[in-house]
Amino acid sequence: MALYAGALGLLASAPAYASGLQVSPVTVTLTAKETADGLTLSNVGNSTVHAQVRVYHWRQGPDGDILDPSTGLVISPPMVVLEPGGEQLVRVIRTQPAPAEGQPEDSYRVVIDELPVARDDKEGIDFVLRYSLPIFIQPAGAEPEPSLTWSLSEVNGKIGIGVSNSGLKHAQIADVSIRWSDGRQTVLAPGLLGYALPGATRSWGTAEPWPANASAASLEVRINGQETQQELPLAGSSR
What we know:
The protein is an all-beta fold.
């Protein structure tokens, strides 16, 4: 979820109007036998909320996420008006066959943008929300799994972490820390770090300094909600 605000220089002098838009669930997975699911948009605020809902096919390249026009998934309705306390079900509908057994899952993102509303007083700043929620389509057969290969590298004196996913399922990566051979722990991401889709290689820089005399380490990480630990090779410096 990203939060946007316009005219930041006016924040000190103008009133702010917070949004009441909420969305659940925050991720959706469709099995090969399922053709539809839903997202619930709700307004917990005191003013009317207008929102636009769009869906994109999601893939990853060397520079990160790429969103393409979707032909395999549609949403309905694409425009929503929510009165205070109101709710709206947005249907997520698959329009193409699911991936075949042995193929990687398919990935989409539903982007929900709150639309700014003109105010009679013409003063103040509206804080409008953008939600970007992952949607996954599983292949036929048994549920696939990610297969991850990790590496650490020194990037301009800081710790960089990389992962390649050769499996058939995405990896949601969170709560990342390193346990060095001398017992010290370095926390790299206390929450969500990101996703590695099937066939993708991802890398992230961090603000943590590369330790002097770094040696073998193990990675402590939460993958798709499950805690795991594995040995972590150290790559060469890329200063």
